[in-house]
Amino acid sequence: MNQFNWDQAFTLDFDLNDGLSKHAETTKRYLSQMKDMYQDQQVVEEILKNDDPLIYEFYELGCPERAGDLAFGTTMIHPGKIGNEYYMTKGHFHQIVDTAEVYYTLKGEGYMMLENLEGDWKVERMERGKALYVPRGYAHRTINTGDEILTAFYVFDANAGHDYGTIETKGYHHIVCDIDGEMKVLDNPRW
Amino acid sequence: MNQFNWDQAFTLDFDLNDGLSKHAETTKRYLSQMKDMYQDQQVVEEILKNDDPLIYEFYELGCPERAGDLAFGTTMIHPGKIGNEYYMTKGHFHQIVDTAEVYYTLKGEGYMMLENLEGDWKVERMERGKALYVPRGYAHRTINTGDEILTAFYVFDANAGHDYGTIETKGYHHIVCDIDGEMKVLDNPRW
Ligand SMILES: [Mn+2]
Ligand SMILES: [Mn+2]
User: Fold this and answer.
1) Distance between CA atoms of B142 and B152, rounded to whole angstroms?
2) If one looks up domain B26-187 in CATH, what number appears?
3) Which residue among A110, A180, A181, B26 sits deepest, i.e. has the most Cβ atoms within 10 Å of its Cβ?
4) ipTM > 0.85 for the complex
């Protein structure tokens, strides 16, 4: 369990190459924890018979959920696919919907899938040395389309909260797949 | 003038080595704009007779000052000294005092000087690959004690506002100087 005193200044290392900290533990998300989110349920079942791959990790540093505090850390999405669908994060809205988030990509390549409650959506490229603004009101999911870990430093309002449920019911309007070696954005067949 | 649509997702490059963006302009702070902040007024006057050195730069990206938005960018403090006092930023409180800020150092070395309204203070080391939490309530000033540019990525609440005046009147309780080649924290003689 990571613990810091957020009323005092402190520093924490995050390797600028792989995003990892030597002084904190990551939270880990395995396939079994998000198995309903992938399209190809047959492939999911097949994989889970023998294995439970690590899809992504991120740092939860225990920032108090107070107005004025900022939660920060890094996220590492591993490379891989479930069928032809790339490894991705669960994605979420913030509970206080109109709160933004800033990502700064350190390594790897991929996309952020964004979608608001009115169904407006956008997919933004993430790559080393690019900051990405997730505007107020948009659910956001990180997708690794590359061959190495995709890692980014992130900051958001500590009291924003996470709403996984709204987007979990049906998923996003679009999914991101590898079609004959190319990244394609497809309509989500479940919508 | 940097302009972005903060209601839509967007990306912006910041070089992971030097902090610079190819698609935005920095705001520049020259010695003449902060000449009263250094201890050795004789040296300041002497320098300004012939020159007006660039002390630091940072990106102001025009984020609207709305609740839920996050201002971000990089700051670059140049290496150098005024007398024995290292180049530094003006430093400020946030107008909404109880708002934090996150820095992630990309290159160089230096310190963050922190001080709250009760006079509690701390100096925290900044170096490549270290994130720094500026807690709610603390004025913060970045100081470059190294030989190269000190650059960091930063994020803060867009509606926090900047209060330069409170700390400008007398300065911080402490100053950071090079004494015989070593960084020393000294009492501010003006206090
Ligand atoms: Mn988020
Ligand atoms: Mn600030």
Assistant:
1) 10
2) 2.60.120.10
3) A110
4) yes
